[in-house]
Amino acid sequence: MRLPEGLDAERTRRMRELSELNADVHRRAMRLVGPLPVPGDLTMQQLRALMEVAKTPGAAGHELGERLGVSAPTASGVIERLVDKGLVRRAADPEDRRIRRVTLTEAGQEQVLAMDSIFGRILGELAQSLTLDDMDLLVRASHALLAALDRVADARA
Which of 36, 84, 112, 130 is exposed most, by the fewest CB atoms within 10 A? Predict the structure, then answer.
C-alpha cells in the first residue's frame, strides 16, 4: 500500500494496520467463497472496458480506447459488443452530438458489482455469525468510509 505524504506517525501506523487487516480479511474470504465470478461470455478486453466504463462513466469511446491502449475503431468494436450484451449504452454528448458517451446500464452495474464485491459475497455467509453489535459497527464504519469518499471527491471537484 502506498501511503500519502505528510501523514503523522499515528495515522501511518493505523493505515498500515488497516491495510494488513484488509489483506487478511481478503485472504480468508477467498478461502470461504473463492475467486470472483467472471462471466464466461465476456473477453478479457470486454471486461477491462466494462471496468473502465464503471470507473469513468460518460467517457467517450476514443477516451476509453486511450485508457485501454487500443485504437478508436477497436474500442468502438468492444463497446458495440458490450452494447449488444446490454451492459453499456451509448448516448450523444449534449454539447457535441458527434461524440458518443458510454455509461453502464443497470445490468452492467449489477455485473460490475457482482465481480467486484467480495464483501457482498461473504456478508451472506457471515450474517448468522455476526452479532447485532458487530453489524452496527460495520454499518458505522461503512458510513465513515462513504463520508471520507465524499470529502475527497468534493475536494477534487
Answer: 84
pTM of the complete model: 0.65
List all residues 6 or more positions away from 146 whose beta carbon is below 8 Å from its beta carbon: none
Q: Which residues make beta-bridge pairs with 102? A: 59, 90
C-alpha cell at 86: 446490454
Q: Which domain holds residue 61?
A: 44-112
Assess whether 25 and 48 both reside in one domain.
Answer: no
Residues 6+ apart with CB under 8 A from 32: 122, 125
Are the beta carbons of 99 and 93 closer than 8 angstroms? yes
Which tens digit of pLDDT belongs to each residue from 82-116?
Answer: 999 999 999 998 898 889 999 999 999 988 887 77
**Domain contains 39:** no
Q: Which three cell numbers stand for residue 135?
A: 453489524
- Tens digit of each residue's pLDDT (9 = 90 or more) over 39-52: 778 998 999 999 99
Phi first, then psi, for residue 93 (nearest 5°) are -65, 130
Examine the domain organization and report whether 56 and 86 are in the same domain: yes
